[in-house]
Amino acid sequence: MTITNKRQPMDLVQVRDACSSAFTLASAPTVSGNYTHIPTSQVIEDMIELGWTPVSAQEVKARKGKGYQKHIIRFQNQNITIKGNDGDDVFPELLLTNSHDGKNAFHLRVGLYRLVCSNGLVIADTEFSNVAIRHMGYTFEELRKQVMNMIDTLPNLVQKINVFRSTELSEMQIEEFATKAVALRWKGKKTTVELTELVAVERDQDKGSNLWTVFNRIQEKLVSGGLTYNNGKKTRKVRALKNFTADMQFNGELWQLAEEYVN
Predict the structure, then answer these.
(1) Taking the complete model, does pTM exceed 0.90, yes or no?
(2) In the chain, N or C terminus with fewer CB closer than 10 Å?
(3) Cβ neighbours of residue 113 closer than 8 Å, sequence gap 6 or more
(4) Which one is predicted more confidently, 85 or 145?
(5) Strands of 235-237's sheet, edge to edge?
């Protein structure tokens, strides 16, 4: 995959360099004649008009269908921040996924970017569920409507994070959460991770046993890699989760797991 994790505002040239498929001006030759092609670049420009700036762009590495493959653009509004203690600030993000092969509608999802660890999350909750926007009939007004609906849910997201922060976990619950998180990361595969390493505190902002800090410590290490693990045959280092589809799925499932621990 081509990837950039910068969280500074990106201009259209930078987005194109990271994700050229977003600028494809025609759909794949295999697509039905009834398919309405809307280049992702048009939606990016519309998002900028709405105050949401691209901060990250990524596309699937493709041998076939190059230029039409699935891609993701992450947007932030520089005026929207969820403030935390000791600089533990979180920036809401809107995640736009699309492809030009006729297999995907535009999807908008709510995500979070945690400044202290430079790590992105994906929210999986019925309240913050992803929205599909059809290519046929796409308009700026429809996009604005969906973006505004998502913005309206942000106060509830702040409340949810505060609930996570106020939920204390016992040592047994932390170990259980970590064990279940490993099972989500390696579905159906025999994998052993040293749990003390997985839940270890790496920075002051991650100290504590509340659900928010425990969730973030575990999420960061399972997504960013670097842990040692054993697959039943050998011990090796965990690689970063770079496939954005798998990343979104794992993040969403981990968020749902965390919600099971809310008092």
Answers:
(1) no
(2) C
(3) 7, 55, 74, 76, 90, 91, 92, 93, 119, 120, 121
(4) 145
(5) 192-193, 228-230, 235-237
